UniProtKB/TrEMBL annotation:
A GO MF label: DNA binding
Native source species: Papaver atlanticum
Gene3D superfamilies: Transcription factor, MADS-box
PANTHER family listed in its UniProt record: SERUM RESPONSE FACTOR HOMOLOG
Domain (MADS-box) ranges: 13-73
Signal sequence region: none
PROSITE patterns given in the database record: MADS_BOX_2
Official protein name in the record: MADS-box domain-containing protein
């Protein structure tokens, strides 16, 4: 009886490995960039909050526009010459 229950259980295939390849469609490329950029910046903020690390990210869109995330904000508000790495 217990064996029958295990066989009947249906589920997903789990995580699938996705093939990484360059996106050629410009509208799809911009949409994918926007989604990934939001997630990346959120993870950077989480990293800073949870560990106290100082995080600064610069991501350039496919159109060349820079997007900046700094936590704490002092990174974003400083001049490039004021930041010591």
């Amino acid at each position: 009886m217990m064996m029958d229950m295990k066989k009947q259980r249906k589920g997903g295939d789990g995580r699938r490995k996705t093939k990484i390849e360059k996106i050629m469609d410009k509208s799809r490329l911009q949409g994918t960039f926007s989604k990934i950029q939001k997630c990346l910046f959120k993870k950077a903020t989480e990293l800073s909050v949870l560990t106290g690390a100082q995080v600064a990210l610069i991501a350039f869109s496919p159109a060349g526009k820079p997007y900046v995330c700094g936590y704490p904000d002092r990174f974003v508000n400083k001049k490039a010459t004021d930041i010591v790495l």
